[in-house]
Amino acid sequence: MNIVSSLPPKPEPAEFVALDVEMFGMTTKLLHRPTTGNFACLTICLERDPETVYIVTDEKKIGRALSLVYDGVWVFHHAKFDITQLRRYHTITPRSKIWDTMLIDQIQYSGYFDGFALDDLVRRRLNIKLDKSLQKSFEKATELSQTQIEYACNDTKHTMLVALDQRKQICKTDFSIWKKIELPFMWALLDFRGFRIDVDKWNVLADENEAAMKALKESAEFNPGSWQQVLKLLRQTGFKKLPNTEAETLEVWIQKYPDADAVPYAKLVLAFKSYSKNATTYGKNITRNFIELESPGVWVVFGDYKQIGAETSRTACSNPNFQNIPIKQGPQYRECFIARPNNKLIVLDFSQQEPNISAFLSQDANLLKANKSGDDIYIETANIFYADKITKHDPRRKEMKAIFLGLDYGMTAKGLAIRLGISEDDAEKLQSRFFNTFPGMRNWSTEQRKKKTYVTTMTGRKLWLNPYSGQRERNALNAPHQGGGSEMMKLTTIKFHQGWKSEWGVFGQVAEVHDELILDVPEEHVNEIAKFAEDCACAAGEELCPGVIFRVGIEIGDNWSVKE
After folding, report:
1. Residues 268 and 286 grouped into a single domain
2. CB-side exposure of 346: number of CA atoms within 13 Å?
3. Is residue 150 domain-shared with residue 226, that is, in the same domain?
4. 391-430: per-residue pLDDT in tens?
5. Count of domains in the chain?
6. What CATH number is associated with residue 470?
7. Core vs surface per residue 31-61: b (16+ CB within 10 A) or e
8. Measured between alpha carbons, how far is 415 from 284 in angstroms, rounded to an integer?
């Protein structure tokens, strides 16, 4: 490998140009923010000669280096990180000539492989073991050593080699998903604003949860924080074959054995777990480690979004995780996330997204009819199912929703019986009747259950299945719904980002939480932007599922709890 300490030459217009940024002293939990650490180097190599790597160590030359390679196709591994850091030193606007080796591989093999770090790709594609042992050495360094220079240049060279191998292999469908969904969604994520947080209110909640956790522990006859003690006690008091003390397990066993002596203990443990989680994960950890002062009196938090964070292509969030902010205990946590001064929050969510996706995937005549008949597909399908006029508060609507979502997720008759509080025999009859009423769903489900290697979303994205897993059939049913819903959310965000008007100020999206999109916008434009957001969401749904009508809920208020 030839290392050249100078600016790179200009590439041809379609030539790949691999780039990689190394930073000194970044805080591990804030790698997604350009707020810690200092520039170490930018390494660049061109497709014409991957063995020659150019290194820039002067941050004042970053702009010149990027201008020189502007016409090429920029290749990164995890572009969101590199572009976030490069934007400290040079203006980088959304461009189509980007290739992200990590995201490309995830589009091709999500669910097939577990690891998508650079060394994973190099091992799989090039049959080379890439030494990453020096990666952590940048955390405490302040000057580049020769070994660090070689390490950085070697990463860039192998990023190029991986990209060239991907380019030979990628199919039209995968490339279309990259260009039309994942790449423009990445640019939108890069422009998310911080979510404003009421720090004082958040800290009060943290103190209250800490006190409640301690009080429960002191009053209990056992240590609710010790899973060994909890498991032994619950087995001795009625939950004889309890497999573990996870919250979801305890909730099921409380429902299954409501008269057992173990129930009060299990409920105490659940309360302790809730207070403990809220006091730690959602306590002062967030206000100590993640808040940034945007302007006087305005503290904001930025989540680190992994845009393909699950095998279904759904996003994930961390540091902090907006997608797991507590909600079961009430609105108090969401009330801490507030609009900026003179702004309002817009909270948008898709109404009954999954059953509408089912209507498209199955092309069932009755489901399509229900989709077009009214705003609530559960009411409309219940009208057909029961041959009666159902209202929103009729318990049969709840029953229909449970059947519908359960079938989407491959729920067994036993699971449905527990959810509805009925016998397993009655649950089987309900499922059979459902499929007789909606035969298109039965046919689609039957065909999906046969699939052993992969299933696809509406865009043709492959979601790989583990043929040896006991969850394969369930995943074959669930993945197209969850993956399709995720693509719908991404496409909506893209439409927000690309259609945003300059008179509305900077791009206003502050969060994406599964089926919710949250915007923080000037109050004077809030109604106009709300209509724009609604139009974007409905258009995204109908673009992915032609012939199916999608509807959204819009709430406007001063804090995130406005939706509740």
Report:
1. yes
2. 24
3. no
4. 888 888 888 888 877 776 677 778 778 777 788 888 888 8
5. 3
6. 3.30.70.370
7. bbbeeebebbbbbbbbbeebebbbbbbeeee
8. 38
